Amino acid sequence: MILHRAVGGAVAIVAAAGAATAVAGPAEDGNAGLEAMDRGDYHAAAHLFSLVIKAPDAAPDDKEFAYLNLGTIYLRQGHYVQATANLQNAIQLKPDDNEAQIQLELAQAGKNGADALTVRWGGVRVLDGGTWVATTSKEDRKHKVKFNPMYYLTYQWTTKGDALSFTGKDKVGSAVTGDVTRDPQTGVLTSTSTVNGKTETLYIEPTLNGYIEWGENSTVKVTVTPQDATTFNVVQESYKNNTWTRSASYQFVKSPDLARTLDKRIAGNRTKHCLGAGLAAGLVSGITGQDQPLPPECGGPQPAEADQQQ
Q1: H/E element, 283
Q2: pTM of this prediction?
């Protein structure tokens, strides 16, 4: 059976050298195709996946994965008709293949006239070019909805279609910087972010109405529903025990003014937060006789510095 690599994932592949000729059998050809796909050699990969599909002794799972990956190659190359046909064949062999269904939606969107940027980036594109404030909402006694800003992120293209940078703050002022980049050879999206000196890299699979993020310890699906040009709703789900469970929901509002309001709130929150942290550190130091460092956002050592001190 072919060991299929989810987009951006890190499933180990037992593969041969990845030559464009047949390796030994359908499973081996499929694995070699995946290796060629990972290094961006789509011509060799497509040839090897085609060999699997044509092989009379190929197992149904091997054929399904070959159709899926061949469809993904065509999708990344912008050949939406061929992508649609191969992905439909994959789903016919395995109706519950969620990845094939996601890729098919994107291929059909491209076939129906969606631009390449929308197909490549899916729901990530809605974040382009603005300051988006994440909010929760609640009704007051007069049943008027009030927004409660939680954090904001500013997204800008650094290279149109290939790199999207972002900066932001949360409610206590912890800053985040990073970018989402698209590998020009493989088409895989990767998000790298740094918060308080800690860097995390996630793999992103775009969906037509959102995206899925893979990290070392979590898988999160984000569904985006635009209301208008300046507001969209977000539902976040976590993947646990082979099922998606809703973990958060909020709104994004495109509003620099609201971001400035949040900056003022951040300043007040940060003062209170760091004052409390300082009092707690002093109390612990007095009890234990050992210095208790402040958290990084309050002037304490950054994670890298803390590691060196240990």
Answers
A1: helix 256-288
A2: 0.71
